[in-house]
Amino acid sequence: MISYKNLNECGAFSTLKSIPRVDVTGLLNPERIGKAMVDMAVGLTYFYAAAPVDETILDCLEDLAREQQLLEKYQALLSGAIMNTGEKRMVLHHLARGKLGDGISVSGTDLRTFYEGERSKAADFARAVHEGSIRSSTGKLFKNAVQIGIGGSDLGPRAACIALERWAKAEGRQKMKAAFISNVDPDDADMVLASLDLETSLFILVSKSGTTPETLANETLVRSRLEAAGLDSSKHIVAVTSKTSPLAQNPGYLASFYIDDFIGGRYSTSSAVGGVVMSLAYGPECFEEFLDGAHAMDKAALEPALRRNAPLLDAMIGLYERDILGLPSTAVLPYTEALSRFPAHLQQLDMESNGKSVNRNGVPLAYTTGPVVFGEPGTNGQHSFYQLLHQGTDIVPLQFIGFAENQLSNDILSMGTSSRQKLIANLLAQVVAFARGKDDENSNKRFAGGRPSTMILGKRLGPAQLGALFSHFENKVMFQGFAWNINSFDQEGVQLGKVLANKVLSIMQGEKSDDAVLKAMAKTAGFLE
Amino acid sequence: MISYKNLNECGAFSTLKSIPRVDVTGLLNPERIGKAMVDMAVGLTYFYAAAPVDETILDCLEDLAREQQLLEKYQALLSGAIMNTGEKRMVLHHLARGKLGDGISVSGTDLRTFYEGERSKAADFARAVHEGSIRSSTGKLFKNAVQIGIGGSDLGPRAACIALERWAKAEGRQKMKAAFISNVDPDDADMVLASLDLETSLFILVSKSGTTPETLANETLVRSRLEAAGLDSSKHIVAVTSKTSPLAQNPGYLASFYIDDFIGGRYSTSSAVGGVVMSLAYGPECFEEFLDGAHAMDKAALEPALRRNAPLLDAMIGLYERDILGLPSTAVLPYTEALSRFPAHLQQLDMESNGKSVNRNGVPLAYTTGPVVFGEPGTNGQHSFYQLLHQGTDIVPLQFIGFAENQLSNDILSMGTSSRQKLIANLLAQVVAFARGKDDENSNKRFAGGRPSTMILGKRLGPAQLGALFSHFENKVMFQGFAWNINSFDQEGVQLGKVLANKVLSIMQGEKSDDAVLKAMAKTAGFLE
After folding, report:
1. B373 — phi, psi (to 5°)?
2. What is the pLDDT of residues B85-95, one digit of tens each?
3. Is the residue at A456 inside a domain?
4. How many domains does chain B have?
5. d(CA A415, CA A497)
6. Preferred mutation among B358, B385, B523 to probe A, highest tally of A CBs within 10 A
7. Residue where a domain stops, chosen among A236, A270, A289
8. Complex ipTM, two decimals?
9. Which residue in A52, A307, B296, B437 is deepest, having the highest Cβ count within 10 Å?
10. Residue B66 belongs to domain with CATH number
């Protein structure tokens, strides 16, 4: 029997508060470094030697995970429980990997079969495009796959395509070039379009509701450019949308691929939202490998023992840092250029899921929830904001990610070591530098240390490892949401801005409004005399 | 007479703590919206109607600015005082705009003349490249300007070149394509090089010391690719470095442009570090307009009245949010795709300058200094992390930036409004939504409001406006550093990681080490059996 209660009603949480905090500086010793690691899946390992938790704290975090029934809630989610309580919806992105969760159906449709069918349809479509049986309106082979979407329809798929572009090149798996248009700023679309041959470009319009204003504005812009170039726009655009949206079964699109309300935007890279563009760009097999990697991590997240379940452990360490140590932000630091936009995806995933102040039943909370998440690739970040991370007045927990091998195979020796060795040496050195610090007579050169981090290491980043990373963080965020007793699957906080933006647009168009503040804002910005 | 004391020794700071805090929700009324603005320069305006400060607090912040002698310290900095106390150096990036600060000389060299000479040299060089009197090793016209640098040699120049690319295209001012290589990850350089024709590429190697390992590794990589393509690499690379570096007057470079120790990396976009690539990409006149815009804001920052000095006011509002309201992070949200990498530049500028725990004399501080800075362009961010900003348990002050007009001129109407109107409507709506919130019977749809923001608005983003933005934030960060009594101009916090990375590299190369922790880390990562 699953029950729900707030974090501060948990006995284990009270206990946790009474356990003495530990100094990371002292924790980071060779014995612990050799032991504090968890096999994840597809060759990834999670290291927590530099996390601010000793065995006593870990035991208590395991008690807390048990008390909050995190694994039972994950199982319930997989079985189709209404975990998105606000919108009264199931949460089924795991089902989209094509392997977990049988027997969930809505109005007679088995949903795993539905997702699998859409994946298969996208795979067939991509193959037809690659083979040339589907061609541009002028009979040319398509060379570019350009996604038009925003938020979850952009960040995850974009991060994934960037992450795999070099891998695809190295492996001879690149079929088409992936590009993305998201911002309603027309300078975004204009610049992307200027860099592409329109005649050989296939656009993927992604909007679950079919009513996202930014995406529809960009569709209008793209259609006008296609038509101006003498191309039949209906032969250059496919839709990814829900079956009930105005974009569905619409003759204006070359094809349509369906999603539904049970997969939220920020969790949708495993669905057609990420699948169509990835299948077009790097082939359907690449997308399948991505799903397999995600599935392997989904399975690993079912392990009950905290010390053998990386997403669960990562979640509980994060919760400890947030609610016991009171640390308000966390940095994601991938030591690979391939993951340059992965922090932006995690920023949405985490902050949109867990940036909540009420519990799953709408009751205000008396504790902190999701942190601010930011990050840039290393070593670039070292030459930028690491100064504050090392010597600032606040402590920021760090999440490192690294790979032993390049995606492209051309490395060079300089000063006796390869660039990849330098990259990994920097990553390992940073873990130690942050944790251990360094004393110095000159206080300006003193490092207090005690700054916690965790690290995910793998051999080489390919689609399976990328899928596993997506799943790891999705499940981490889910576990934290369960522990905080919040609904990680809605985003009511984005609504007010939309409503007010429409009011400002009305005011700009000369309509009357009794909202004096909005009128004053519009006037100040020069839009109203 | 200038004197230095810590923030918590200031009478005005004690007073500030005793003044009642104000509710932003109530502050945001039409009268205040019409008044709470400051003309900046080159058409930019700073709005602070939604900042958490009333007239009483502003008066006290002005007292504090006077008590900490912020303007006198700025004047002293301009006159060549040793403001980088740790490294005992002057701080002269303002001088690089070419207009402020006469009579500062070192060893008989007038430094304004020196910076101006290097700017002029870069302008002549760029013109010769554009006219074709300087050509590739095979006699071709150069088409690409590729900067190799990291940290301040990358983030500011890259943000600036991205910000002006569309403008240059629209104005017919684009001369060459700008590209950037920064990360020591060889997958970074390999991908950039694969997208360019090497034969028509001119590389700009930027390292003040001439010893930055990442940059030298990338130089080796680029040289090996150039030579492999049968090109004479010494005809394809110029250096931007200090006169005493190993890169200076080196026959391996087509030309050298000089900088010195008085312009820190994150402040160096106005020097040859940003000037060579900007002059090559968009012409020397573009770089001059950028400097003119920066100079105009430098002058505006000399205004003593708090309410008429935007950088000073922005600095003091930020300090109030940080030290009185206790808010640990701040988001930069440009509503223009052109500024997509401007937050990454500000992240370095702010966090590397003011992420310090000791005062300018090395004495540990008892108050918080620089915040975590992060951001992404709107409206993209609205569909991502804004959920937490609106409804999360922590409050994050927001810094909006927007422009009334596009850079590229092609906009379209959709649903009755242009994309640019939608963009600005969203920006204005967000300011109101964050400040005012909205009640709702359903607590899940409730917005507490009271979330502060400021906004910089302009007509259109061109080089002068960009220069003004760079200057605004440089001077804001400088004023905050003076108020906190810290040295904003060194970065000792990046040293320890470098030292330990070299030790790990030695261990990887089989050298003996008595650092058991580093050895264990290297072993765990598979680099040591």
Report:
1. -120, 130
2. 999 999 999 99
3. no
4. 3
5. 53
6. B385
7. A289
8. 0.97
9. A52
10. 3.40.50.10490
